[in-house]
Amino acid sequence: MVSKRRLSKSDDKETLTEDASNARKQPLSKKTKKSHVYYEVEENDSAFIKLLKTSGIILKTGESQNQLAVDQIVFQRKLFQTLRKHPSYPKIIEEFVNGLESYIEDQDIFRNCLLSCERLQNEEASMGTSYSKSLIKLLLGIDILQPAIIKTLFEKLPEFLFESMNSDGINMPRLIISQLKWLDRVVDGKDLTTKIMQLISIAPVYLQHDFITSLPEILGDSQHADVGKELSDLLTENTSLTVPILDVLSSLRLDPQLLSKVRQLVMGKLSSVKLEDLPVIIKFILHSITAMDALEVISELRERLDLQHCILPPQFLASQSKMKNKSQTRSSGNQENSDEDCVFLIFDIIKSAVRYEKTISEAWIKAIEHIAPESEYKTFDLVMLLIIYSTNTQAKKYIERVLRNKIRSGCFHKDLLQGTFYVHYLVLKDVCPSILSLAQNLLHSLDQSIILFGSLLYKYAFKFFDTYCQQEVIGALVTHICSGNEAEVDIALDVLLELVVINLSAMRLNAVFVKGILDYLDKMSPRQIRKLFYILSTLAFSKQHEGSSHIQDDMHLVIRKQLSSTIFKYKLIGIIGAITMAGIMAVDRSRFSSLTQGKADLSNEQYTQVTSLLQLVHSCSKQSPQASVLYYDEFANMIQIVKLAPKVLEWVGQTIFNDFQDAFVVDLCAIPQGNYPFPVKALYGLEEYGSQDGIAINLLPLLFSQDFAEDEGRRTSQESDHKLVSPLCLAPYFRLLRLCVEKQHNGNLEEIDGLLDCPIMLTDLEPGERLESMSDKERSFICSLICLTLNWFREVVNAFCQQMSPEMKGKVLTRLKHIVELQGILEKYLAVTSDCSPPLAAFDLETLDVTPHASTVFSAKIKKQGITGKRKRKAGGNKTSPHDMISKEDGSECDPTPSNRGQLEKEFKGKEEKTVSLQNYHLLFRELDMEVFCILRCGLLTKFILDTEMHTEATEVVQLQPPELLFLLEDLSHKVENMLTPSVARRVPFLKGKGSQNIGLSHVQQRTGQEIVHCIVQLLTPMCNHLENMHNYFQCLPAENHGVVDGPGMQAQEYRLMSSCYQRLLQIFHGLFAWSGFFQPENQNLLYSALEVLTNRLKPREPDQSLEELLSQSFHYLQNFHHSIPSFQSALYLIRLLMVILEKSRVPTQNKEKIDQEPYTSLARHFLCRIWPSGEKEKSSIPNDQLHALLSIYLEHTDSVLKAIEEIAGVGVPELINSSKDASSSTFPTLTRHTFVIFFRVMMAELVKTVKGLQAGTAADSQQIHEEKLLYWNMAVRDFSILINLIKVFDNRPVLHVCLKYGRLFVEVFLKQCMPLLDFSFRKHREDVLSLLGTFQLNTRLLHHLCGHSKIHQDMKLTKHVPFLKKTLELLVCRVKAMLILNNCREAFWLGNLKNRDLQGEEIVSQNSQESRADESEDDTSSQVSKSKATEDGEEDEASDREKDEDSDESDNDDDSD
Predict the structure, then answer these.
(1) Residue 1017 and residue 983: Cα distance in Å, rounded?
(2) Considering the entire predicted model, what is its pTM?
(3) Reduced DSSP (H G I as helix, E B as strand, rest coil) percent helix, strand, coil of the chain, to 5
(4) What is the secondary structure of 81-139 as a DSSP string?
(5) What pLDDT is recorded for position 804?
(6) What is the mean pLDDT of residues 1345-1356?
(7) pLDDT at residue 1184 above 90?
(8) How far apart are CA 1214 and CA 1211, in angstroms?
(9) DSSP secondary structure string, 722-733?
């Protein structure tokens, strides 16, 4: 039977000989030794027997062991001395060996001589080891006998090569070879090596393995090289011996070249070897690595080794099923166990190598880091990074950096990570703590893709690992949730949600950890609280696990406690939790009934629990209007998302329908009469009702009764009979009603469509002349009334925007127009009402910090008012009107032609009055749903108004006008900006208050990014129509105004309105295509759909277009709009949009730049060289940050940054200097005295950035490369000189600050990048180097003057840069001196004194006369030295050292002045 292959050669010193002898000695005891009958060999004339007996060995026959009467060392010494002193020496040796050969001819005797001897003396008297050697091994220890006995053994051994094993289990060849192991000394190692290798060549395969693996224990170090060469040749001839040969080669001291040769041979066979042979091969490859070739070897090993395919598919599937069902028996049996053991063994070897060999671990990380992005990545790569991460603590930061880069580039994606856990989950389970640590660090990133990868690590660790690891995963996620970091809380809750879906039973075991999060609700947003309660409710009320009553009890206790809290915040948390739990309890399970064969509807007990919980929430929230608003909103969101059981939905719908009519709907015939501060009128009705017909929304009386009536304390007994619902609840209550009706009637709203056109009980809202005469209280009341009306209209638009009837669409457009009009009126009131605090539209937790004055408008107490004498009508009552309306829909979009300008001017007449912007008041308004933006598809709606005889009486055209279009686009852009931008970009510090950016977006936040992008992609076609209409509008303007953009014939208000629409459209397009989710494979179809819409605007659709074609055509489509860009802000958005489109391309970067660099440069330059219309009150319509961004884009993408800088600084700036005060540069109209500092800062920054990218080079580079780099630096220094000298003209503080900051950075780069180039270019390009240094010297002198100017004016912002700049200039002096010494021009370096001067070159008075004389002397000298080349060297360095000397002079002057 073939012996087991070993990875280690450290065998125990007991050889097979001793093992066999011990086995025979086991039945013996001391007594049996004394009474045993021995059969001694009869003495004869043989010198062999006599000498052995004389030396202390008694030979025995049969089953008896040879007896050793003396110690082994004594025996060897006696025999050696006897042989040496024998008279016939050295002939006696031959006789002795001949006697041995004759004696061992008998096989049993020979075997007895190979087994250990029996000792006669007590163990206490033994001076040697505790075991006895065999006779043959004792004889081999005598040097004069060893060669002859070895020869005898090798002559004897072939007799046993092909014999079967003896009956006693002893293998003779192995026993013979074992005599040669661990000899104290080998007399003739070379001969022994030759004999063994000859024996190996003829032996059977199973013995070849044993003989080869025994070589390190037989041979000495001196023979390792010869044996290694022989074995390498044998490896080439016989591949079946690969494993034992590599096993031995790993234990020998061999030449690195030989190991490299063997390694290359083995590496070529790596893909074809058996799995059980891989561990030894991998060990040899890793053992043979040196620091020089580590990266190359690891890269090749990674390329050839693929453990994923070593596991057979049936075994792979069996391992998955075993992972999912631990109790399932293994179908693959021992074979699967063997394969798993081999894989474990391979990774154990690799772990050991990377743990103890820093070279191997670093090389492995670099090998993975250097893989090209387009190459195929393996699961083995991820496993190795995780293993090294767990074993090498010093490489953790390095591995994290590599992982982040690979994740960003898309190389490590979800499918690869999932495959890694599927294949290697047993290996990864051992490094679970490190995986969780890595996931924790990745979740701290700011990149969304990296955060997603970290969340997947948690997800797969929970899915594939055992219960202990699952508990660790839940603990880590709970830690993230309790950290207070918004981004971490969001992603951790999302992971918990996925885990509940993946493995609900395992999550239930860890429910106690999840419940602990309830103690950290204070800093969680409503969306996060909603997710948490959804998780807990799912764990508590899942029908698959009925034994979860303790979780249900805890949930009920927590929610009841929060609902009964007197603290408003906790009451709101209780409302969110109760509604979420009710949604889980009342979910419609009819879709599962066919699978589970259970009841489709709720049981009576469950129905009672749900209704009791909802009634409890209602009763706890009705005491506070704010709590009621949140309750209605949460309830509406739950109904929108969750499909409730029909029984519950019917109860909810009927209750809400009746309550809404009682609270808010009145008959038109019963206009409330009372002592109101304003006359009550039914306004904004869309149909004409008779005097006794129709309904209205009772808004003003409700608001008055809760505002004025409370303050004046006027309540009648009749008013206190009924509870009065706060008008705050009107919009949210209607939203809840609308969603219930939608769910019950599959989107049909006929039952409540009377609310779309019914009027509202208001008063005349247009202020007119009475605005100034109104009291603050009255103005505040009107503001509140307008806000409530706006929110009602917004919810009405939300409800009916998807109705397909042209009549309904016309009414929705009319309501949209009312919203825009009311917002304009509200702006006028807010502008003159200082302490106005209108009611907020939502009261979730994020608005708590911004609601200190909300309670002043409405009282939290409940008012009671008796309403008698009126006839209630259902909301969907008689909707007939005297005139029927027939509508047709035109397919055209909003096209504001010049004929409409008079109407636009009329609409915006009076806008010159003092107003405020409502952008800061978005908390006052209800949120628009994403479905509202389908209105963008509406074209012209022509309504034919008929008389009683069905004849056309009048025609009215309802159209989506620019004000309404701008209103929709502003809201959509706000949603895109906040929802498609990663939340990590808006992170807040730990335990800090949340920002208000996402307030008012609670509905859209419940949608995923994919859903929002899908909605916007569906709107791309109508938005492209609007964009093209805007383009046509602005294209026609210059022609009408004879080329003058802001000519007298143009309406300013109309222009601003259309320009704003243009900008918002481009802003939405940019936000859409900048979404990071497009890089994920599952969202590629959305990107294709969006690009196809843009492509189809140019030419008809072509099937199967590639991504590159779509991107190219979309790029050209959007690029065509640059001719009509109306504002600088729109221009910047267009540039950024084109950049984002280009970034989606998969073409290599260098090709991308060649294709699209020219359009980028020309377009950016076109916008910089264009005259933009200025605002009425501003000096410039170009914001500084946007000008900075566009100029940076231009300089970054231009072909030559240095030429572009020279053009602006050398052409544009002189034009500006020579122009009048308020004029601009003729070449660059955006360059004015106001914007000069922006141009200067960007040019200096880009100049430093450009020279940083130019490598210094080496002396080994070609002469042409040196000349090109020297020319480049000459251009850079010339640009730097032009920019620096501009401070003599523009000497204001911001310009000087930029000069100090970037001037020092440029000098530092000059030291690092340019000076090494000058070191080896000085001799061949002497004049060029001198010219370069001479120009740079003048710049550094001006920097010195700037330092003096900063100190004289004592400007702290400037002086803080002075010490660093002076230090850098001193380093420059020393570096120039070092360059001259290197080029044997040390004598050209001399020192001089320089006066301190200001920016204009005037001498600073604090200098003494001696320094003045030195300065004059220096000037004369420098003018004379310029005549010779040798002194030109000195001139430059003299100037540099004068700079250094000036530092000391200036510091002395400062000390004197102090």
Answers:
(1) 22
(2) 0.74
(3) 65, 5, 30
(4) HHHHHSTTTTHHHHHHHHHHHHHTTSHHHHHHHHSBPEE-S-GGG--S-SS--BHHHHH
(5) 84
(6) 79
(7) no
(8) 6
(9) SEE--GGGHHHH
